[in-house]
Design brief:
Layout lengths: L35 H4 L11 H4 L8 E7 L3 E6 L13 E4 L6 H6 L5 E3 L5 H4 L5 E6 L3 E7 L2 E4 L4 E4 L8 H9 L3 H8 L4 E3 L23 H10 L4 E2 L2 E2 L8 E6 L6 H14 L3 E4 L7 H9 L7 E7 L7 H4 L13 H10 L7 H18 L2 E7 L1 E6 L2 E2 L8 E3 L2 E2 L5 E2 L2
Parallel strand pairs: 12-13, 12-14
Antiparallel strand pairs: 1-2, 2-3, 4-16, 5-16, 6-14, 6-15, 7-8, 9-15, 10-11, 17-20, 18-19
Helix pairs in contact: 5-7, 11-12
């Protein structure tokens, strides 16, 4: 800020206004500065792999990149051009370690700041000389059902009315078969929890507290399947047309508890007579998982994914007709209408926008093309000698990251 905080002014012109523009993270206003003078000669297709991005990037924050050991660590040192002056630490090194080493590293205080793996909480919660801070991030895991494909020529999702999972009763029954609260009470000390809607509670009035979601209810699931014509033949049910029903589930590998959690869900679905198998016979590494999900692999009937969300609650970029992230590929007239309404000029009236968000949550809850599963506390172990490490809005970058300018080390 060479001319001070009230210095130069930038005026942005838009062809049309959107209600989301009043909030950060809206996608209409770019909120990060990029050094045009430094990057203008790099061809766009080479930008991500260029040395100007990978090895010698420019920074306007309190620290700048000093050293990268690929796949192992990154070291940062004070940025002499930072407008507030020199920060308190001489350097910061961020290291990559195995999830299996996290608990021991916290107990031995090998690092000053570490993200906690919730399933290991009981093992580390009494560690001395460590402060544990937590927040609930804007994110959630969800169960999605494949009911169409992405059409690259049209640049939009196209739903298939005859898709295996395009049966509302089947989707609802599967949702009732997930004992989410029971699972996370056992495997995460209650630090993960079931969420009822696709709009998290952190969005305040946009969250509809009257939508209850799908509690664990095998009896209700069985009733839905019976009524919809999914009859039992031996252990498993068949489709209403009499053909065998096998549902392929794609799920990512993760911590040591991921395998038993997923196998538990498969067992619950079996209690309802649903034959569910893992795509490829096992949990998948993240890149392989998204490769199959994004490219609408015929080996995937349903999948358990997760989102990190923007602070602007619009759902158009996740579940719209032209949204590549709409991995279920569902497109309905009602969904498009509600998504357009929540981002319309009328939605500058906050009460109107809230009303449309509530209508959308009720609609999505009923249709169950995407079923919210859980969110989790994000816990960080912090050396108690660190000062200024805070998640308060005035001292953080948002979404659980501190402003490192204020962080120091007490002697």
């Amino acid at each position: 800020m060479p001319d001070g905080e009230n210095g130069r002014t930038v005026v942005l012109h838009f062809k049309e206004m959107k209600p989301g523009m009043t909030q950060s993270g809206n996608g209409y206003i770019w909120e990060q500065a990029a050094p045009y003078h430094y990057l203008k000669d790099v061809p766009f297709k080479k930008l991500i792999s260029s040395n100007k991005i990978r090895k010698q990037p420019l920074f306007y924050g309190p620290y700048k990149l000093s050293k990268v050991v690929r796949g192992q660590s990154v070291t940062w040192v004070p940025n002499e051009y930072y407008y507030k002056g020199k920060p308190k630490l001489s350097k910061i090194t961020a290291s990559v370690i195995s999830p299996n080493s996290v608990a021991q590293s916290i107990k031995s205080r090998k690092f000053d700041v570490m993200a906690v793996i919730n399933s290991q909480w009981q093992n580390i919660k009494n560690t001395k000389d460590v402060n544990f801070i937590a927040h609930i991030p804007l994110s959630y895991s969800y169960l999605g059902f494949k009911v169409g494909k992405w059409d690259s020529k049209l640049g939009e999702n196209v739903m298939n009315d005859h898709a295996k999972m395009n049966n509302k009763a089947l989707r609802q029954a599967i949702a009732y078969g997930m004992n989410v609260n029971e699972v996370y009470k056992r495997y995460s000390s209650g630090l993960s929890f079931r969420i009822p809607t696709l709009i998290p509670k952190q969005y305040g009035p946009f969250f509809d507290k009257n939508v209850k979601g799908y509690d664990y209810n095998i009896k209700k699931g069985n009733e839905l399947l019976d009524k919809a014509g999914f009859k039992k033949k031996g252990t498993y049910r068949v489709q209403p047309n009499g053909k065998p029903l096998t549902i392929h589930l794609a799920a990512m590998s993760g911590s040591s508890v991921q395998q038993p959690i997923i196998q538990n869900y498969i067992q619950q679905w079996k209690k309802m007579g649903l034959k569910v198998k893992l795509t490829g016979g096992r949990l998948m590494e993240m890149n392989s998982f998204y490769d199959k999900v994004q490219h609408d692999s015929p080996e995937v009937d349903m999948f358990i994914g997760a989102w990190s969300l923007s602070s602007e609650p619009s759902q158009n970029d996740l579940y719209g007709q032209k949204a590549p992230f709409n991995y279920s590929r569902f497109v309905t007239k009602k969904n498009t209408e509600l998504l357009n309404d929540m981002d319309s000029l009328k939605a500058f009236d906050k009460d109107y926008r809230i009303k449309k968000f509530h209508e959308w949550q009720k609609y999505m809850d009923d249709e169950a093309y995407v079923v919210p599963v859980a969110n989790s506390y994000a816990i960080t172990a912090v050396n108690n000698k660190l000062t200024g490490y805070s998640l308060k809005p005035s001292r953080s970058m948002g979404n659980g990251y501190p402003n490192w300018y204020y962080v120091g080390y007490a002697k």
